[in-house]
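For reproducibility, we list the full input for the PMV complex.
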Amino acid sequence: MEMRATAVACSNIALTKYWGKADFRDNVPLNDSVSMCLSEAITTTTVVWDDTLSQDEIHLDGERILDQRGVRISRYLDRIRADYYRMPARVVSMNSFPAGTGIASSASGFAALAAAAFAAMDEEMPDDEALSRWARRGSGSACRSIHGGFVEWVAGTGDEDSVARPLAGPDHWDLRDLVVLVSRAPKAISSSDGHRIASTHPFMPARQAQLPARGLAVKGAIANRDFSTLGALIEQEALEMHALMISGVPAALYFQPGTIALLHAIREWREADGVPVAFTLDAGPNVHVLCEGEHAPEVLRRIEALAPGVTVLENRPGPPVRRTDHHLI
Ligand code: PMV
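The corresponding predicted structure, in tokenized form, follows.
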């Protein structure tokens, strides 16, 4: 017996961040977060449940994976198998963006994996809420990639009610995220270690106290397509997350010289030259430069002048996870 399906999912950039967990097994976060799906950072995954296999076979970007990444995917499939079929799976996954660029492939990866794994079963497809829950169990931020456009992940109280919900579709606002690949060096501290360090950080209670108001303001700015309000809020949020990272034990200093240079330049472009542009950051050195579509050519020109030849990935609000018949195997 062989059952096959393929799903495509976008990665997402958090505008308010998930950094710190209440439950490490199920990736239940300490707080709500809001994100935008990234149209050009895409993972396509084919899952084949195949009872002729003796164990799972995992291929990522054309390579058979036998290391920790494969173990993580197999453990995840074990959780699905515990509730559904007991068969091994062949998983073939391709990213549209080069591996090791620091773009979060776990968000698009686990969203596509969850959708393909269930679609390949001879069972009723879970609804978006259930799929979001399953994606989150693989990697927290993946739950936001089930929906397109602008998305809120409601922290909830535990595994049952911690799910992402759509805020506005991809056509709501022509916002661009120009991801500037400042450095391709591997991260010294993984995001799972980062979540652990953050969860017990002495500054965390102060952060938690102000997040509900910031989250409401960010959702309001998205609803009103108010770029200047959104820009101020997301910069404050990104720097606050990095303040926690830098002051953690051990410290995670993700900034590279190119990161700092770009952050200063963005502030100058906005404050001195009046270009409506703002930044956010992930757990890494790359800078997500946000602006509205009409300003993207000017912002791209300035990025190129500052860092000639640097790779920039230009994203619009991306679509929800979807099935395709273009199978990878
Ligand atoms: O889903 P994870 O465990 O890779 O954590 C993602 C953490 C951040 O990207 C830094 C923030 C976020 O909300 O996506």
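The two ends are 16 Å apart (CA to CA). The chain has a mean pLDDT of 96. Both points were considered when choosing residues for closer inspection.
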